[in-house]
Amino acid sequence: MCGVAGIFGHPEAANLVYLMLYALQHRGQESAGIVSANSSTGKMKEHKAMGLVRDVFDERIIGDLRGSNLAIGHVRYSTTGESSSKNMQPILAENFKGPIAVAHNGNIVNATELRHKLEGDGSIFQTSSDSEVILHLIARSKEAKLIDRVQEAIGQIRGAFSLLILTNNHLIAVRDPFGFRDLVLGKLDGTFIIASETCALDLIGAQYIREIEPGEILVINKDGERLIKPFDKPDHFSFCVFELIYFMRPDSFAFGRSVDGFRKMLGRELAKEDIKEADFVCPVPDSSNQAALGYAHESGIAFDLGIIRNHYVGRTFIEPSEKIRHFGVKIKLNPVRQLLNDKKIVVVDDSIVRATTSQKIVEILKNAGAQEVHFRSSCPRIINCCYYGIDIPVKDDLIASRCSDAEICKQIDAATLKYQTLEGLRRAVGEDEDDYCYACLGGSEYPVPIPEELQKIGKIL
Amino acid sequence: MCGVAGIFGHPEAANLVYLMLYALQHRGQESAGIVSANSSTGKMKEHKAMGLVRDVFDERIIGDLRGSNLAIGHVRYSTTGESSSKNMQPILAENFKGPIAVAHNGNIVNATELRHKLEGDGSIFQTSSDSEVILHLIARSKEAKLIDRVQEAIGQIRGAFSLLILTNNHLIAVRDPFGFRDLVLGKLDGTFIIASETCALDLIGAQYIREIEPGEILVINKDGERLIKPFDKPDHFSFCVFELIYFMRPDSFAFGRSVDGFRKMLGRELAKEDIKEADFVCPVPDSSNQAALGYAHESGIAFDLGIIRNHYVGRTFIEPSEKIRHFGVKIKLNPVRQLLNDKKIVVVDDSIVRATTSQKIVEILKNAGAQEVHFRSSCPRIINCCYYGIDIPVKDDLIASRCSDAEICKQIDAATLKYQTLEGLRRAVGEDEDDYCYACLGGSEYPVPIPEELQKIGKIL
Amino acid sequence: MCGVAGIFGHPEAANLVYLMLYALQHRGQESAGIVSANSSTGKMKEHKAMGLVRDVFDERIIGDLRGSNLAIGHVRYSTTGESSSKNMQPILAENFKGPIAVAHNGNIVNATELRHKLEGDGSIFQTSSDSEVILHLIARSKEAKLIDRVQEAIGQIRGAFSLLILTNNHLIAVRDPFGFRDLVLGKLDGTFIIASETCALDLIGAQYIREIEPGEILVINKDGERLIKPFDKPDHFSFCVFELIYFMRPDSFAFGRSVDGFRKMLGRELAKEDIKEADFVCPVPDSSNQAALGYAHESGIAFDLGIIRNHYVGRTFIEPSEKIRHFGVKIKLNPVRQLLNDKKIVVVDDSIVRATTSQKIVEILKNAGAQEVHFRSSCPRIINCCYYGIDIPVKDDLIASRCSDAEICKQIDAATLKYQTLEGLRRAVGEDEDDYCYACLGGSEYPVPIPEELQKIGKIL
Amino acid sequence: MCGVAGIFGHPEAANLVYLMLYALQHRGQESAGIVSANSSTGKMKEHKAMGLVRDVFDERIIGDLRGSNLAIGHVRYSTTGESSSKNMQPILAENFKGPIAVAHNGNIVNATELRHKLEGDGSIFQTSSDSEVILHLIARSKEAKLIDRVQEAIGQIRGAFSLLILTNNHLIAVRDPFGFRDLVLGKLDGTFIIASETCALDLIGAQYIREIEPGEILVINKDGERLIKPFDKPDHFSFCVFELIYFMRPDSFAFGRSVDGFRKMLGRELAKEDIKEADFVCPVPDSSNQAALGYAHESGIAFDLGIIRNHYVGRTFIEPSEKIRHFGVKIKLNPVRQLLNDKKIVVVDDSIVRATTSQKIVEILKNAGAQEVHFRSSCPRIINCCYYGIDIPVKDDLIASRCSDAEICKQIDAATLKYQTLEGLRRAVGEDEDDYCYACLGGSEYPVPIPEELQKIGKIL
């Protein structure tokens, strides 16, 4: 779970990438970085740091990156592994053939195997990130042309990868053959823009052109763009359905559909054959707003905002040592007491992972006076981990992998609990339902085979 | 526009005030501070800094403030005056009679006059804040008892003040006779809590008791609480209606009513005799969500989220030097293109001040494909400045003070524009409608006379 | 022990004061600050922070202070009291009569008494520094003219004070009637410069004019300078002899004499009737270099550098938890092993306070192979504390107040130990010997009476 | 010009290395770093940052490094190349065979050639430092044993290198066959210590054992130490004479001699057949103190301290914009006016590079009243650059490479100027005079051939 953005040939390249990173911030809050290049001088510059885009960049830093006409950027979400400044992206390597940088969204499942081989051959790694492997494979290639080196490198990696590669005169976009993560192409003032989500294009006023297709390598240089499709096409694609359900911004247009519209469909599916009478349908803001609206529309129950989200709270806050009634969720989600009092409500959340948050939400609502709380999850039961880049805990921590709905309902102390069904989800997806990956939901196989050692750990290294 | 919170007699006093400041953060983002006291040792400690609560305090700082059983805190909104670290609150003064601290929400209209007199008598000021005047008046009093010194000091100030005063064995709450700003009393584990809004009580699980009444001085010490009402009661109170319309958090219960409910009433009033057919009613998140819901309910038009707010954007961001199509509002408010396309929508915003934001919102929506944008303001036309602590610009900058509705509608390029009427507002307020101040809306006189020099400037110094 | 510097009427005022603070850094390393004023606009600016001049100021800060033609600066040595950012100087107070700032070197013995009186009359203090009292006394004065207010204020304080007072059009220098601390007047490009030591004048190329005389108030404004001598002249002055012995820089010219020359005289006096044969005389660099040279010249013994000082060590360093052979002094003073081996040496140090450092020096030298270490102190036995601004510990911590020379010699494990005699010191001072204060050496009375409460504590508050 | 220190098998390893870096700080002030290893867990940790040892490490950081029993450290002097945080040392590389770190003092003359080859083979470099080449060569080796991999790597590099290599169970010291830079072995509490200079051993109370010999690879692990000498012994060694003249600390014992004693010999040599009458000999503190003492002893002229060094000045300070009489040197070197007035003095400096500093010193002394200033350089004329790690400017910037003594004397405005002769230097060195490198002084060939491209540039890349 990361976000990438790139631009080729614009005098404000670094500044525009910086703005796009704001639009992609929901995809990763741990670190942010930009590498820019000046195609005349051949110079590349970088800046990256731990923290949010607003804290990582300032006037002086953006000023330093200016004067470049090429740039790529990255926001990083720390998955289960190390949260370390070493793993910030983009990763830039200097080389007498010229500098090269990479920004990666996804997860390479054979990274450990490739890394061992490279280290055995004498390569030195500076990070524990799977993304660095790509740079080494490019550097190791004996091919004369950059594009051939990239192609040889990409041919060796397996898994989910939506990549941007930058040299001082090329911007290359790569999307794996299964298409796990989206990558979109846009245009602004005649220059090409590439980003993880369309909301980044919208922000800078760029026009949406098309998706980078699964299995596509798009090479952009001063002579224009060139498309390569070196991979065998799989039987079907494996778009990550969880991106649509939870991760993307509702104003994005992804995998050929409106995220906002999709989530409302999820809400409608949930509402079918469900409660028709309640005081109101309440979202857990902001991530389930759309599903809750869909539920309300379908059921005819009123929509209302029974919970207010406090957006000023940072990653951490200091609890009183007596741990006065478990803060955790409470400081971020605040109930509207007068609205909830004595009410029967349907709460729609996007998903249930460990159920600890769900439990606190129910507690908050009931403490604020709610009489009945009916809990609904717009996502089906999550029962498997993800090896392709979504930060889902190991199986044992997934409540749905070990408890029945009734048990979970009891644990979170709700009046009733209902999950989206796999069928409902597939109906919401519609006709290209087989082009999605449902592995974490038990709805499909893992499309790219998982090395045994990863299977044992049950998560990404 | 500031927030205050205090607690008397709890072993986690400083930590609880810190958490309450999170709940009050919407009332001021410029600086935050806490002064704590240990009633056994008589020691007082302080920490304050520019920035948000999450940035001002860390584990070590809260640790330093621990071991105290009394504390007050403050979040500051910089009004038109200086934004300076000198003006952070609470203000603490050491004195051989014992240290004393004050945290102030409001604005003292005769501060300049009092300051000149005090300086003339040899007092030295460390800040340019009107709040420091209060400390000097207390220090100057010849009365023997603290409470008499406070009473003498308070008797000299005019304007809006909801104050907390802390010594090493007293917590004193003061609210001006007109009651401009709210101040509420709660209880937790048998100890008294005071805060600007009930949402702060809710957060720490404190029970709401009652408002500190207009004109009340509540003195809390180890012997219990004692109430003084030294002021003449005015004919009617002057609760700030703008707090309800815009400033407070919707989950607060203020001036005896639910803020959420009040805002829905505003929406309903707006919808009466207005458009009945449109594709949907759209709020400008998050401040007008409730009014938009009220409008939707009354009009029967669907409610939908056509705009997504990006909460990751800080105070400033760096625009490209070519100022690519005016960022300003755009980076924070993102349209949901697929939802808006070809639609007729009613946008409900909380208020219109300069109309520059309104104009950009309309532009954003239309660029995203909206066919018709009908703009509604849940607040009546703002035509006068505020001298009691709300940061409203000088009259000339208030568009409604110099343009007709038709002119404003044209400027913001909306299909139609409609403001809340003063009558609608009064209906929403209900039976105690005369106990509110509507001066900025031209709906009432300024209840406390404004010194001529302030009238000339047309704003708070 | 602090340093002050000021300048009136130079376009580079703040920058020159900043440079002078570098030359005065040895007088105080805890905090540094500058207040500058522009006599045209009347604006005053300040910057102060904990730390060394090199860390407190940077290009941007000096840039902010530029555009001023008046400035004063201060470096602070934290005496026994609090080391706190609240006590940084200069102290600036805003006032409708105009801003005023003060920078103080010395100690006011009746500060507590004055402060209690001022607080009783309603003044609020922001610091725990005795220097703030001066500002309050000036503010409290009912006199119309600044100079009369200053004179009234100064008339009430007792003790050691070499002050600079700055308004937006005046620079005022004040030295107490006893003249404890030096204050010198210089000229650069036709403008007046005042500083604690002549080395500050030398650094910026200013010409030395004369000392500010004991009991003098020198008022400088655009009409020139004016000298007031409002105090009764005491029978004799009380220049601080310890400043000459230890505290000042050897390249300064102070109390009418060369510090370098005086210290060599101290060395010569020590050498009289002392050892004539040894391998070499060794200073404890850098503070006793001159005394050691004097000793060497008088005795005919060679001078050599058996100890190297490491100037890279900061205030603190982290010792191994096993405290491998007591670091303390060791990390700063490094013996030259090949030079010391098997040698008989005379070590000349500037003074002996607690004797812990002396003990470590002897240990270091002997561990490095020295056969005989003869320890000499260029300062007589220190047996009393100082109430006038020199940071000498309480009497009980002064080894010479409770041990004989023989006992101290045994404790520091030297072959022999010899102190300067009071007679030797007086001979080094020469004809104006009665114009010095020797109170800490038991060589004179305390010239300004010490309040009983201070006498009890045995140090400055 | 860097410093290295290492320790094997001590529970306080990281803390002791940290203290040794203080003793080596004069060898590099740009950055400092430590890598520590725990031989039980196999874990390695690192911390490095730009700045002085006192600023780079704090209690928490040293605490983090604790629990390790192996450690190496490095202080870096930025030579002509980039001053960048990327080039901080030690350099640590993680590898599935185990982590490995290197700290390097010296300069590898064939680094560029090796790097091009390695990059051509697909290695990725993270720094622009020549030292990283060593790590890559080790990583590339196909040998099974660490020591064989190190030996294969070292066999490929040419130039000056005194290296420490650390794994989680080995500490390896390497010194090039010519022995350019010193590296000494000591023992503390039964554990081995290695450092660039003996002053680091002295500081922590370690016993000096011997030098790591030129061409020696010393491998220390839990089974003890093992010495390898894989290189052909050259006809003679090439110890850097400039280390003795200028760079080392006077209390070090290096290349088998006392640095203090050597510098006094240089002073004595200078004094032979030179002025016998002057008021005093004056060093430029602190680097020429010993040479000046030697001169004074030989000539019979008195030694005195006419210049005081201000150690509080950092790397930069802000000059007034009018550049009041050229600060540069002035702020650090302060003349003792009363001592210099009307005097005839011999100034002994350690060396003359560009002569700009020399010129300012003469100016300072004369402005302070000196009548005659005779300038002496303890180092012979520097006419060539150094390719082995000493930061000497390109030939054109070396004044002695293009001007006669008379011309230089005129430029610095001295009464007379005299350089050490090559013969004098060789006499001071004594019997092993042929085991030194005098290339920068034109006194010998460059012992290791310099690649043509470096010769063209005339300096290290």
Automatic annotation (TrEMBL), chains A, B, C, D:
The enzyme class is transferase
Q: Which cofactor does it need?
A: [4Fe-4S] cluster; Mg(2+)
Its UniProt pathway annotation is: Purine metabolism; IMP biosynthesis via de novo pathway; N(1)-(5-phospho-D-ribosyl)glycinamide from 5-phospho-alpha-D-ribose 1-diphosphate: step 1/2
Note how many cofactor molecules are bound and how.
Binds 1 [4Fe-4S] cluster per subunit.
Residues annotated as catalytic: C2 (nucleophile)
Q: In which residues is [4Fe-4S] cluster bound?
A: C240, C386, C437, C440
Indicate which residues the UniProt annotation says bind Mg(2+). Answer: S287, D349, D350
Keywords from the named record: 4Fe-4S, Glutamine amidotransferase, Glycosyltransferase, Iron, Iron-sulfur, Magnesium, Metal-binding, Purine biosynthesis, Transferase
* Domain Glutamine amidotransferase type-2: residue ranges: 2-223
| GO biological processes | 'de novo' IMP biosynthetic process; purine nucleobase biosynthetic process
The keyword Metal-binding belongs to this UniProt entry's keyword annotation: yes
Tell me which domain of life the UniProt entry assigns to the organism this sequence originates from.
Bacteria
Q: Which InterPro entries match?
A: GATase_2_dom (IPR017932), Ntn_hydrolases_N (IPR029055), PRTase-like (IPR029057), PRTase_dom (IPR000836), PurF (IPR005854), PurF_N (IPR035584)
Instruction: Tell me its EC number(s), please.
Output: 2.4.2.14
Give the catalytic activity: 5-phospho-beta-D-ribosylamine + L-glutamate + diphosphate = 5-phospho-alpha-D-ribose 1-diphosphate + L-glutamine + H2O
Q: Which GO terms describe its molecular function?
A: 4 iron, 4 sulfur cluster binding; amidophosphoribosyltransferase activity; magnesium ion binding
Q: Does the keyword Phosphoprotein apply?
A: no
Function of the molecule: Catalyzes the formation of phosphoribosylamine from phosphoribosylpyrophosphate (PRPP) and glutamine.
Family of this protein: In the C-terminal section; belongs to the purine/pyrimidine phosphoribosyltransferase family.
Q: What is this protein called?
A: Amidophosphoribosyltransferase
In which organism is this protein found?
Candidatus Portnoybacteria bacterium CG02_land_8_20_14_3_00_45_8
